[in-house]
Amino acid sequence: MKRVSTPDAGTPGRDGRLRSLAVWLCAALVIILLDQIVKLWIVQSLSYGQRIRVLPFFDITLLFNTGAAFSFLANGGGAQRWLFTGLALVAAVFIAGWLYRNPRQPVLCAALASIMGGALGNAADRLLHGHVVDFLLFYWHDWYFPAFNVADIAITCGAGLLILDEIRRARHKPDS
Asked: Backbone phi, then psi, for 68, in 5-degree steps?
């Protein structure tokens, strides 16, 4: 008699994994759409470098970043556009696999979907415009934090969730 293996009761089957993946990919898509809609509104509403004071330490402005975070490699001669776009696409494929393999870890999946959505939101800018649109500017007197956008917020929040999830996981790990 041939023995048929059944999946562990705690592990969802292929259909459950695909459903979970679809949910998290939709979450990433919402982030991409929100990011692109806000950027479009900013580009249509402001001229380059224009600043609107919101608070004594916060402005809405229109700036373009050809580099990565904190304008890293902004003066790279143009190759950085394709490098960072390629990295975002490779990361998205890697993250999709990670989401598929971990459907029962909602904090991890939320972190990964946020990072994916943010990375692809900025990649869309690089493909469409050759630069990333930044518009949130925080400062204090003569100190300025580099301008950023919704995609950057998603990436940062996702990274924070990853750290929190790992701390939580380490605290609940049985002693070996």
From this structure: -105, -155
DSSP 145: P
| Catalytic residue check, 35 | no
Nearest-10 crossing angle of helices 14-45, 79-101: 150
Examine the residue annotation and report whether 134 is marked as an active-site residue of this protein: yes
Q: Which band of pLDDT confidence, cut at 50, 70 and 90, is reported for residue 69?
A: low
Q: Is-contact 160 112, C-beta < 8 A? A: no
- What does R_g of the chain's alpha carbons equal in angstroms? 20
Distances (CA, A) of 141 to 30, 53, 121: 35, 14, 31
Q: Which residue, chain included where needed, has tokens 């600043």?
A: 51
Structure tokens at 105: 């870890």
**Sequence-ordered list of residues with C-beta below 8 angstroms from that of 2, at least 6 positions apart, any chain:** none
- What is the pLDDT of the chain when averaged over all its residues? 88
Query: What is the rounded average pLDDT of the residues 157-169?
Result: 95
Q: Label the pairing between strands 51-55 and 132-140.
A: unpaired
Q: What is the pLDDT of residues 106-124, one digit of tens each?
A: 999 999 999 999 999 999 9
Tokens standing for residue 38: 């806000």
Identify the active-site residue in 35, 125, 152, 165. Answer: 152
- Residue among 134, 142, 165, 175 flagged as catalytic: 134
pLDDT-derived band at 99 (thresholds 50, 70, 90) equals very high
